[in-house]
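Usage

Read records sequentially. Each one opens with the input sequence:
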Amino acid sequence: MPVIPPTKLAELQKSPRNIRNVCVLAHVDHGKTTLSDALLATNGIISTKLAGKVRYLDSREDEQERGITMESSGISLYYKVLTKKESEVAETATASSEPKSDHTVSEYLINLIDSPGHIDFASEVASAARLSDGALVLVDVVEGVCTQTVSVLRQAWVEHVQPVLFFNKIDRLIVEWQMGPSEAYVHIQQLIEQVNAVLAGFWEGDRLAEDSRKLEAAKEKWKETHGEDAPMTDWYLEEKDDSHIYFSPEQGNVLFGSAIDGWAFRINHFARIFAEKLGTSPEKLQPLMWGDYFIDPKNKRRVLTRKQYSKLYGTSKAASVLPLFVQLCFCPIWQVYENVIIDHDEDKIDKVISTLGTKVLPRDRRSKDHRILLTAIMQSWLPLAQACMVAILEKLPSPVGAQSLRLPPLVQGETKPASECKGAEFKEEAERALFTCDSGSEENPVPMVAYVGKIVSVPRDALPELSSTNSQRNRKAMTAEEMRALGRDAVRREFSLSGEAGSATPADTGSGVATPQDTGAGDGGIPVESLVKSMNEKLNTGSVQDEAADRNSAEDEILIGFGRIYSGTIRVGDTAWAMQPKYDPKAPNSQQYLKKVTVDALYMLMGREFVCLQQVPAGNVFGVRGVSGAILKSGTLASDSQTCPNLAAMHSETYPIVRVALEPINPHDMNKLVRGLDLLNQADPCVQVISQSTGERVLVTAGELHLERCMKDLRERFAQCEIHVSEPIVPFRESIVRQNAQPGVVLGGVGASGQSLATVSTNSGQGSTPDGESDLEELRIKPAEGQQRGEVSLSTPNGLVTVTLVVEPLPEKTIRFLQRHEEDIQRIVKLSSSKRRQALNSAAEALESVNADDAVPSALSAAAEGSSRIIVGEDEDDEANETGGKSKSPKPSRVSELCPWLQSRLCATLDRAKGWDTQRVQYAAEHGLRMFGPRRVGANMLIYAKDVLQQYKKPTLSWFKQQRMASLQGSLSSAATPMLSDDEYDKEESDSETTPAVEATRTAISICDFEESVNTGFQLATQTGPLCFEPMIGVAVTIKSFVYNDSSAASVNMGALSGQIITTVRDAVRMGFLHWSPRLHLAMYTCDIQATSEVLGKVYAVINRRHGRILSEEMREGTPYFTIKATIPIVESFGFADEIRKRTSGAAIPLLIFRGFESLDVDPFWVPTTEEELEDLGEKADRENAAKRYMDKVRKRKGLFVERKIIEHAEKQRTLKK
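and closes with the structure output:
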């Protein structure tokens, strides 16, 4: 097929009903790019013989070397269909063939997006799914449904993308595994069931969520009509038909084939072939082509069910007969492979070619490579591109049909089931245009809304209007004077930077001032001799050209937005509003996420090439230049920021977890590195760039392979300089368990600075220093006399306030509960934090008439600040097990009902746990729970004891200040004087005599006045634990008492005291933490490996050497593969994939997915203490403590004290001989 001119493709962009936006999704190495090559060959972009070998859409060098896709790339394809008027059967027509009179011609534009399959690049899959309306989901029939297959199906489900299933690599079942047609049929049946089971899980989850929302709405309506206490009696779950979501070959949404051999089919293809022979129509035969249907051996024109066949011919024959699909579809394919590849019988090959009526070139027939002959036969008989293209056109929706389903949840900013998106009402003109894919016209324009899914960095020469060829063609020649001026400017810049451009030494003149003529200086006060000398040097070394190259290096890479337009028409030169995902027109502080941009250029994406366009109508995928800086990674482009909606952010399956610190080898290249990191941050949707307060630049990536790609881009494209990369920085968590702590353990760095071993005693008489360090030299993990384990009493450095708190571990099921319902707690926090602040401002008046038990609401009922997203490593247990066997009730959606629902379940997780009696649990959940941490989000709890909450009943210092300031204001003579501030009040109080109000103030200081300070100290402590300054997890902190010691002070410096309370609470929490046996939680990967039995032992050896743990091992039915599931610490995973490939000679390739955090059950301070341990291991312990090694490594990286002997024998002197 000849290459289609871009003008033809641009013409087709104006017909949205004939456009298909399709992405290719699959697990890594399941054949996505090979399939894409076959589709590109239909447009003459590459040769049909090179399909699967050239990997055209893998434009990066490292993609070609590794053989995997790392970036999503798009291309526009043309396809023409001839449709018979009477039967409406689609057939392919070449671009040059003339249509017959009894056919109608339909021309289509296919916007194809190839996406990666590796888990490290899942964010690219999210971008591809957002820009598409349909998806080709590939499954390797040998490897089956893998982890990433489930992930891409979930991504398609979340984005409401209609999928078509393609079972690839069927040739491997024939040639490699020697399966028969019946065995392969049963195997593929099982794969379809597995894929449909995944979809059923998605459907059920959405249906329950939808029913829960409807139930809440019905309850509200029932209460309005029948009263608050009237129970509902007529509610039932609505049953819905879910047959349309599943893959079924008889429905035509399943393809079978081999992309590398260039063939594929759907069962309707064979139904058309055999319908006439069986005396029926293709429409009637197609539903019988899949399942237990058999041809009657006596009457070849009749099809029987298994029951009918058993009744006519007996059960034994029914068990051995071949199903209709196997007889008509698989058996002919198997015969071709057996005759061409396995047996290579020349006579049978000629018979196959003549029987199938395929056209095979003589050179292919004479080829010694049997695979070439097979590909020629199969491509002529069952062409891959034709089967896929027709399936795309028939089964995947156009933008007009898809946007009415996909856009409502994106406009509303939340994901809803597709059933709720039907029949959406148009609230505004912009929504009507969005849901109907209206491009508008010049006479009747509609709002333009587009979504930029990712930013692509391309070389300047790749853009036709900016390429060097065009630049040289349009460049104007410089005159000699202009070149001399350019040289003088370059020299001036050098002198200004190096300090050599200062004034010359004054000449001995009468005035004592040197003139340019005296010094021989040229323009700008630069000495002529120096100027000439510098110019000669520069001309000899070529440094002028080097400087110009450095200045233009930032412009070598151009950022292009890869987007999809949903309504209106975008044109070159238009001005539009770029809205980032956080922008909300109703929010007052969101204007920083809104910027006005000008569309500099528009492109049609053609893989490695870009075709310039003047305009792009709705329904198309396009590239846009001019949005860099306004859109960071993704965002919405709109003609009006007020009426046009900001589309919801994309859902991604991965999170960046691997961190490295970067610095240039040459310090002069720091600006290049900063500029390169900025470009990388925009061009990669998953990467994060963090600038530390110390000036350190930290790069956060999704995995090791992602890190390698980012560093390659930085060195070769973005920064173009040599970069030093630190060892990967892996996150840890710190926790405690109820075991005996190591006696006499010394730990440094309890304070904020962490510079020495100085820490704080647990005696109430001792004080905390302002910077968090103490006057003592060491902290021994032993509670003071009369105090329980974990209890610490600590005073501020000025001795005015003493805080007593208890630190204790939370039960494991409580930690899992808090982590699982973290998003629910965040909803409560965001919705109710403002109401809580208003309530606390009037706490003195509101709490005077309340009982002590009801003094202050808990963090859940009052929505006290937050929760945090920390992913657990263990699999989630059943809710009933965690809540003590209680029945599982549906989670309410309204915040007012969600609070008591969470309270009851939180109580159930703590009930009967060690150290938590029932009464204390109930009180803590209802009243004492103040907040979670760290960062006001996480699985740590701050609880106020009953005695502390009693202080909320008393008038606070703030209340007395208000009363005193009012009385002082009334005594002033000038009525125009404003109200006194706190500082003015303190000064007035210090100058006045003692009054009853002042005396009351001295005794009224309580935790109410310093609640934010206590909370901040708790947040700081849980954010940076004492082991290695990593966040805590699973810690409960109970404030037992808050006492103001000195009532004789004339005044209180509230600012200074607040800061001291923060450090005191922080240090006390860390000290209480060390009373228990500490544990480190390691970030873990789940490792999925498929390997044969021959390399199974080598795989286990590598996993054990990396401190991994095998979770399961099972043999995949019908294949010689074993599926191994294991966990491995991320800190030990670097180089794991390369090692396992080397050990197994490439027979096993691991897939690493972030799992969460898992406790390492080793005390970092463990040393041999018992006689048996000392006898076996010695005083220094021959066995390495892995937890201590991890802890010391992190402490050393952060500049904290590490217990390590640097000098073994300081008194010895070393003498070096010459």
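Summary fields computed downstream for this record:
- The chain has a mean pLDDT of 77.
- The radius of gyration is 37 Å.
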